[in-house]
Structures are given as C-alpha cells and as structure tokens.
Amino acid sequence: MTKASKYILIIVFAFLIHVFSQPVDACVEGLKWGMDLSNVENHLGVSLIPIKEKTNQNLFEVKDIQISGLPVEALRVRIEKEAGLRQLAYEIDNENMTEVLAGLRYRFGSPVGTNVDMEDGSPEQQWIWHTGEDLIVAVRSNHRPFLLSYRPSLLDPSFL
User: Fold this and answer.
1) Contact criterion met (CB below 8 Å) for 89 and 148
2) For residue 25, what is the DSSP state?
3) Pairing of strands 123-130, 112-117
4) β-strand partners of 32
5) What are phi and psi of 7, to 5 degrees?
6) Do residues 100 and 148 make contact, with C-beta atoms less than 8 angstroms apart?
7) Whole-model pTM?
8) In this structure, are residues 92 and 63 in contact, taking their beta carbons and an 8 Å threshold?
9) What angle do CA 107, 22, 28 make, to 5 degrees?
10) What is the pLDDT of the chain when averaged over all its residues?
11) What percent of the chain has pLDDT over 70?
12) Per-domain residue ranges for the chain?
C-alpha cells in the first residue's frame, strides 16, 4: 500500500468516527447534523445511492451534480441509522479548487495548512478549518479530484 493510499485511508477512517452530538447546522445551509436519509435527499433535491462496501452500509453518494452553481463530481454522505447525518464529502474538479478555498477562507478565516510529499514524489496539500461546530478538511492531490469534507467537530474549542 502506497503512502498516498494510507493517507487517504486515514482520512476515510477519520470520516467514519461515530459522534453523538445535538443536531446543529451542517455545512450546507438548512442541513442539520443528525438528519435522516430522506430529509437529506429532500433538502438536496437528489436521490442518494448506497455505496456497496462490506465494511460500511451507511455511505451514500450521488455523482455529477451542481451545488450552488459549482459542478460536483461526487457527493458522499455518511448517514447512520441512529445518529443520522454524520459527514459530507465532495469531490470537485481541481480547476474549481481556488474558488472553493477562497470562499471558505472568506467565511471561516485562514485555515491550518500543510504539505505532504507522497511516496511517488507528488505533493499533496491539506487545509483544515475548525468552525466551532464543524471540522472542514480540504485535500488537493495531483492524481485525484479536490476533496472537501465536513463532519461535526469532536472538540469544544472552549476547553483549549
């Protein structure tokens, strides 16, 4: 397994962390953490298709949609039976990355950023925002679409 694959696998596992929190606004206006599948589909105006994986039965996706006028290659959500909506992840063409990052910086301030050199020598960049309620992670790689992930925060910043 390459270092890049391990890195992506770590990100995916981070997405799958089970969080028990009160419903609060999720990343898309009107969505709430904890919403059930039908409410998420109604709000987004799409039908989410289950991702067939042996390890997880609560992942759904829709491909080739527009969100706020921006083409999205894939939208994946994790919706647990008891806890509802727990995570959203978008795959966006790298050419739209600058606009997305600028919008996030305008809305949430400067991110924490890092660069990682992968085993194959290609760089990967990661930006992280903690909004107080959400954790937003953006990942740019030369070999994959731009990834934007939202999940409820596990950390209350007032404890730091």
Assistant:
1) yes
2) B
3) antiparallel
4) 25
5) -65, -45
6) yes
7) 0.74
8) no
9) 35
10) 80
11) 78
12) 3-153
